[in-house]
Amino acid sequence: MEKSLAEAEFAPRTTYLNTAQSGLLPARSLTALRAALDDMAAGEPYEGAFEAVEVSRATYARLVGVPVTRVAAGASVAVYAGLIAASLPSGAEVLVADGDFSSLVNPFAVRRDLTFRSAPLDGLADAVRPGTDLVAVSAVQSADGRIADLAAIRAAARAHGARTFVDASQAAGWLPLSAQDFDYTAAVGFKWLMGAKGVAFLTVPEDLDALTPLFAGWVAGEEPWESTYGPVKQLARSARRFDESPNLLSYVAAQHSLALVEELGPETIQAHDAALADRFRAGMSGLGYEPVPAPGSAIVSVPGLGHAADRLAQAGISVSVRAGRLRAAFHLYNTAADVDRLLDALSGAEA
Prior knowledge:
15% strand; alpha/beta; Aspartate Aminotransferase, domain 2; 12 strands; 7-stranded mixed sheet; 3-stranded antiparallel sheet
């Protein structure tokens, strides 16, 4: 990764290795956000805010390889998972991976009239069966960084007539992904896409009638500013009918963060992130610890070291603990020196 770009855009006060929890905001995004806040404080609402939503939508569409008409803009994966759950008929079977992120799986689990089933991630494709209606899975597991075999899951789903829903929250921004390959995908914008909280995207099939826009407000109208009172006369003839009323300030920042990801390219970011993660895995093995196997992932989960997170924080190293394990996540603003500092700090950790 270009050192000059990283130095220009990011200035963490710690050794920040926690993108799986929340990404750093680039300087370009922070500048735009501050300008918008200044305008609001002066009683001059930032006029480019709604345009920022559309710019963000278009950039995200290019990043995941679908027409912009298939992208809805919102704020939460859980809301979009709930929308998909509500579309399923009573008795439909939903298959998920064991221990997947709650925002993805819980909206289906709380519908008691659905058949809810889970299987190990590495056996998810084999668990698809006749009668499975939807397979919902994270592209990358939040708890330990394991990457789903999406090609096998997609093939199995198609063979049995099931639809697919992929949560790309821990993938979009570093792992190249074609949303065209799946019926639905969703992703938040505040992790690897490095935006502020309050941004999420949903991609849908060309058949818009497969979902009912249950939370459609005025922004879901084909002509939003003519849809502000009474029932919306004409829903948007695109995925915009599934928009949530946008968190405008978050999108003001997101448009610039997404532009940075597109400028560098997910493939370049992937190579950088994965190399740092591999360096950390090798170092952990040298210290006698075996990370959870997750080849190629930018997320590394290490059993037996969850207790070290507080001590690392005191040393100015930001990681997280998930499922009792230490979790480190490496992104474009990280360097080999960051990895080595983490390894040095862990070299004296007690098991």
